[in-house]
Design goal:
The structure is a single chain. The protein is α+β, with helices and mostly antiparallel strands and 240 residues long. It folds into two domains: 87 residues, Beta Barrel (Elongation Factor Tu (Ef-tu), domain 3), CATH 2.40.30; 143 residues, Threonyl-trna Synthetase, Chain A, domain 2 (Threonyl-tRNA Synthetase, Chain A, domain 2), CATH 3.30.980. Helix content is 18%, strand content 36%. A six-stranded antiparallel beta barrel has the order 2-3-7-6-5-8. Strands 9-10-15-14 form a four-stranded antiparallel beta sheet, covered by helices on one side. Strands 11-12-13 form a three-stranded antiparallel beta sheet. A hairpin with a 5-residue loop joins β6 and β7. The mean pLDDT is 92.
């Protein structure tokens, strides 16, 4: 079955009613989900489910078959019965940090305009790996440029194009190791800025803040050598 992705239409939705569509060995599948399933370097959401006579922690969210979103419950937790009405409660503080981090990484790929060889988003530390044979000469200048983009408070929006349109514009795909999800006829794009102020447009299925100013100041961590040509650049939220 296919789960309606509420996290995509409204990434700021913190709780929502739903109906249990299926219970499997992997977890609970709802008809609609505020929980984002792990993918594209972004971890799955956590939170809890509440229903009449019961409650369970959601310790992870993963993708199932056929567009299903599977909520992985805490160890030993009893699952609600199929057909049960539940209320989803998202761990909003964690999700919001992931949204801020994810958008910051998109901007990092603008500041460092090199092919991306890998990446991982986390609530406390995130990183991108670049095809960068030589270390950058001035890390402080990169950090200043990234914070300057964030401070412009640019709008973050989405658009959709067909698989064929994306294939005709390969320059939009910045990641070398992970291809954008195709095969369903269309691909979601995340745009930062608008019109003459557009600074980035790339395929992405993750959750993002509405404006870059919401990220807040960030700081760059170590720039590590990972292999002959790869450099890993880590990002931290400055309010930690």
């Amino acid at each position: 079955m296919t789960t309606t992705p509420l996290y995509r239409t409204d990434p700021y939705l913190r709780e929502s009613p739903a109906t249990v569509a299926q219970v499997t060995d992997a977890g609970v599948v709802l008809d609609a989900s505020v929980f984002y399933p792990a993918g594209g370097g972004q971890p799955g959401d956590t939170g809890r489910l509440v229903w009449e006579g019961g409650e369970a922690a959601v310790r992870d969210t993963v993708k199932g078959e056929g567009g299903a979103v599977v909520l992985v419950l805490g160890d030993g937790a009893a699952a609600p019965a199929p057909g049960a009405a539940v209320v989803q409660h998202l761990d909003w503080d964690r999700r919001h940090r992931l949204m801020r981090m994810h958008t910051a990484l998109h901007l990092l790929s603008v500041v460092i305009p090199l092919p991306v060889t890998g990446g991982q988003i986390g609530p406390d530390k995130s990183r991108l790996d670049f095809d960068m044979p030589d270390a950058p000469g001035d890390k402080a200048a990169l950090e200043d440029a990234l914070n300057a983009l964030i401070a412009r408070d640019l709008p973050v929006s989405e658009d959709w194009i067909t698989d064929a349109e994306l294939a005709a514009r390969p320059e939009m795909v910045k990641t070398m190791s992970v291809a954008p999800p195709t095969g369903q006829g269309r691909v979601r794009l995340v745009r930062i800025g608008a019109g003459d102020d557009q600074v980035d447009l790339q395929p992405c299925g993750g959750t993002h803040v509405a404006r870059t100013g919401e990220i807040g100041p960030v700081r760059l961590g170590k720039i590590e050598k990972k292999g002959r040509q790869n450099r890993r650049v880590s990002v931290h939220l400055a309010d930690d």
